[in-house]
Design brief:
Cytochrome Bc1 Complex, Chain D, domain 2; 2 domains; about 130 residues; mainly alpha
Length: about 130
């Protein structure tokens, strides 16, 4: 019987070390995936601010929202939401999500849109009214 050559012995050692590095690689990938999932979960929860959550948890009154719209919004968006200085809001609920609409209203990021601060119940009313614009 012949003695194993040093090349054969090296191949056995390499095969054993490859199994260990493969396991380590798999664990690193698994840990990275877990970190990504955790990060996405944290960012998703952080993005839901208390004002937005309170607003979206309420069932708004379209009648009161219509009053708020006529007082605060109709000057720029038209009595029927058809748009004047501000954009047309007819069908806004089909074009934009409620969180985006709320953000636009409270931030006023697109001039000349001013920022409006209102109670969550009033914002829920305004959203309910905007959903009726079709």
């Amino acid at each position: 019987m012949s003695e194993p050559t040093s090349t054969a012995a090296n191949q056995d050692v390499d095969a054993q070390s490859d199994g260990g590095s493969g396991l380590i690689s798999a664990l690193v990938v698994l840990a990275a995936a877990a970190c990504v999932v955790l990060l996405l979960w944290v960012l998703g929860n952080a993005r839901q601010d208390p004002y937005l959550k309170a607003t979206l948890d309420l069932q708004g009154s379209a009648d009161h929202g219509g009053q708020l719209f006529r007082i605060n919004c109709a000057g720029c968006h038209g009595l029927a939401g058809q748009g004047l200085l501000g954009p047309n809001l007819i069908g806004i609920s089909q074009r934009s999500s409620d969180p985006r609409v709320v953000h636009q209203i409270v931030s006023g990021e697109t001039p000349p849109m001013p920022s409006f601060q209102m109670e969550p119940s009033s914002m829920a009313d305004l959203l309910a009214y905007l959903r009726t614009l079709r």
